[in-house]
Amino acid sequence: MDASLVTYGALCLAGIGAGFLNVVAGGGSLLTLPTLMLLGLPADVANGTNRLSIVSQSLSGVVGFHRGGASLERRSVIGVLVPCVLGSLTGALAASRVPVRALEIALLATMTAIAALIALVPRLFAAPRDSEPRWDRRAAGFGGLFFAGLYGGFVQAGVGFVLLAVLGGVLRFDVVRANALKMVCTLVFGGVALSVFAAAGQIDWPIAALLAVCTVIGSQLGVRFALKVRHDVVRWLIFGCVVATCVAAYLR
Predict the structure, then answer these.
(1) CA–CA separation, 228 and 70 (whole Å)
(2) Euclidean distance between CA atoms 243 and 207, whole angstroms
(3) How far is CA 109 from the centre of its chain?
(4) Cβ atoms 196, 89 nearer than 8 A
(5) DSSP secondary structure string, 74-136?
(6) 126-131 long-range CB contacts below 8 Å, 24 or more apart?
(7) How confident is the model at residue 133 (pLDDT cuts 50, 70, 90)?
(8) How much of the chain, in percent, has pLDDT values that exceed 90?
């Protein structure tokens, strides 16, 4: 079998898995980024190429949650988007100017650290159920969401967990609304980051388009049972995939 067919098949599977995981909880870029790097893309181009799929799957997820009845108040959407967009723009501008080798090391180190957190500190990523938002924690929430945007603009990998930790752990949105708001955030600041990377010429558009289609398929699968999925199962699934892909990327 042609090696290129195998590698692009792996990319499609990673895209479907990433779209699914990003809707259910987060961490999908922990699958796609190492796969893009294994395909031979430099770390900066892999980082930029991944952004089109983030935008496409986020839009797909938002539509899916809306059709499923997960309504969001305008106040909630605006309140979380402002700090995320500010942070994302800052992070993307920084990432587009970092030397390739330094970014590759940063990406792999970040993915390894997140894998460890997923395994060792699961409570950081568990949004509570049936809880009302705490707008009296607005200042802490703004700071956390700015950091989430900054991190998402710079790396993206695992940003869904950062968003869920802030939306659920700090602002106390229930798990359904936290997931829906998470998709709105990644859609908007993903678009900001995509624009920055496109302007810097750091996107492989044919690969980005293929990955985007696959992640949309995965996102629709994820929306269908996002209300019932057990977070501990997803956490260990992500952990196993992250360990396998990071080991492969380190050995490349």
Answers:
(1) 14
(2) 24
(3) 16
(4) yes
(5) HHHHHHHHHHHHHHHHHHHHHHTTS-HHHHHHHHHHHHHHHHHHHHH-GGGG-PPSS----GG
(6) 126/164, 126/168, 126/169, 126/231, 127/164, 127/167, 127/168, 127/169, 127/173, 127/174, 127/175, 127/178, 127/179, 128/168, 128/172, 128/174, 128/175, 129/174, 129/175, 130/174, 131/168, 131/172, 131/173, 131/174
(7) low
(8) 9
Q: What is the reported pLDDT for 102?
A: 65
Long-range Cβ pairs for the range 98-103 (8 Å, 24+): 98/44, 100/42, 100/43, 100/44, 101/43, 103/43, 103/44, 103/47
What is the C-alpha R_g of the chain? 17
Contact 63, 72 (CB under 8 A): no
First-to-last alpha carbon distance for the chain, in angstroms, is 21
Predicted TM-score (pTM) of the model is: 0.69
Let me know: does 215 contact 57? Beta carbons within 8 Å. yes
Task: Identify the burial level of 74 via C-beta atoms within 10 angstroms of its C-beta, where 0-12 means exposed, 13-18 middle and 19 or more buried.
Answer: exposed
